[in-house]
Hints:
alpha/beta; Rossmann fold
Amino acid sequence: MASLFALPAAFAGQARAPSAPADGSTTIDRDGTVHITRAIPVPKTVSPEAYAKLVTGESWAPDEKSREAADLIEKMRVAYPVDIEQTTLAGVKAKIVTPKNAAPNKKDRVLICVHGGGFQTDSGSFIEAIPIAGLTGTRVISVEYRLAPKFPFPAAVEDSVAVYKEALKTHSPKKIALYGTSAGAILTAETAVQLRKLGLPLPAALGFFSGFADMARSGDAGHIYSIPGFMGFRPSSGQTLAAYVGKTDPKDPVLSPMYADLRGFPPTLCMTGTRDICLSGTADFHRALLRAGVDAHLMLFDAMPHAHWYSFHFPESKEALEAQARFLDRHLG
């Protein structure tokens, strides 16, 4: 269930290197490339539970087919009791996740979740839908969109739009919110751009949780962090999604919403961590929304790696999920 990218197998059992000198070193090439050596301790700002996890260097988003992922889903269903129905909407596979505590006055609302997984796997159709359904008391449609490399862009956008249009048949757009983590965050923004391109009403709110919106350029974070944070090497974030981009111009405004007119976008919550491979992308998109006059908010967690809320039982993860739920719940009325 690696969220946006898969950590190379060579690093799965990577041994710990000796600690770097406390003072570190920095050299800068003529082209501005920086080579650094630093000793970076786990900050004291995190919870004891998060500290114990961070010192292992392990991912907070376990592989989707692992026993750890299955255990995580089972524990989620205990913490957030839901009913799950596998179905098809507008020809697209989907899960309907209905909270057992669904309030009668919330039956006219629906949340649409587009999962993470680098557009090549399904890392979050359970993980991202179950807690939010439980915390908001609202039914979630988790879209199982077509995956790359067999189905590159715009297949995932087409599937998400189809499910949204189906939801519009029975719900006011003011009672629909769209959200996703990692690749799902990217797809959330892409879908919103496509909806407006098609002349469809936009949803009441967007959740852009740990993603980026520019396939043509990468920020610092894509060159510094991996899924678990500092462990392992990552190429720049945009390069890792070549199978999804396919032959499309990386500056296409639907593929890369940073090049779209974002004015009039719904209220949007952006969320990331300071050790997230998508830190730059999330922050850059938040700034772009603000420049466009959108009611956009950025929530940043110190020392947290990519999609840390997948491991839902840590204090920082609970705080993240509760913030996501509050935001979506509030904007659905």
